[in-house]
Amino acid sequence: MPADPTSDARPRRRPATGALAWGSGLAIFLFVPFFAPTIALTAIGLLMAAVGRRQRDKNEVAAENGRNAANWGLTLVVVSLGLVAMSYGGGLFPLGLILSLLGGVAVAHIVVCVMGVLRAGDRRAFRPPAIPFYN
Question: C or N terminus of the chain, fewer CB within 10 Å?
Answer without folding.
Answer: N
